[in-house]
Design goal:
Length: 206
């Protein structure tokens, strides 16, 4: 594996090699010249990219006949460099708009397409895959995110809100009210509790 981070895999396929134009979607631009997002990403003359809130993926068409063993890929938290091993010529290089988790990022080559999968260091929408490249209109990304895409703490908050909304709709106690009830029940049987037998609030036998 070359580069500071990432795993390498070269997949052999009997399918015809993918042509560069086949991986580039048909894109539209807004009045500001920014691309309307496709899969929350966009395209340049060198690559196509997409993203979720926590990950980004780039598809880079390689020169004809080039395979994984012919390139050197360096994925750093701050940027990317892809070179030819034969003459060290740069195929693609640039800085990420925000830092990534280098150790969690991988790259593969399939049918002449270099695919780079990135794990973002923080959850944010990128306006471009590399600084200075054509930007997308981030106001038009699909921001709908599955609960499982959030961190554990945020998931807990979301699930609590959803539970409370359901309980209220059914006329049942919310999670906070249930917690208070549980604490009260525990306190009733704690040493010195006025609810214990002999106490002023102890239940009287029928």
């Amino acid at each position: 594996m070359d580069g500071a981070a990432g795993a390498l895999e070269e997949r052999e396929s009997k399918d015809p090699a993918t042509k560069p134009e086949e991986v580039r979607p048909s894109l539209k631009v807004n009045e500001d010249g920014k691309q309307i997002p496709v899969n929350n990403g966009g395209a340049t003359d060198k690559y196509v990219w997409s993203q979720t809130l926590g990950e980004a993926t780039m598809h880079v068409p390689l020169p004809e006949g080039m395979r994984a063993r012919d390139i050197r890929v360096e994925i750093l938290p701050s940027g990317l460099t892809v070179r030819k091993k034969a003459d060290d010529d740069v195929i693609l290089a640039g800085q990420w708009p925000r830092r990534i988790q280098g150790d969690e990022s991988v790259w593969t080559v399939d049918n002449g397409i270099l695919t780079i999968s990135l794990d973002k260091a923080d959850r944010a929408w990128w306006s471009s895959a590399l600084v200075g490249d054509v930007e997308i209109d981030t106001t038009q990304v699909d921001s709908r995110t599955k609960i499982d895409d959030y961190d554990d703490e945020t998931q807990g908050v979301i699930r609590k809100i959803m539970f409370d909304q359901k309980q209220k709709a059914l006329g049942l106690p919310t999670s906070d009210e249930l917690e208070k009830q549980e604490l009260f029940e525990r306190a009733k049987f704690a040493p010195g509790s006025p609810f214990l037998p002999g106490g002023p609030f102890a239940e009287k036998p029928e």
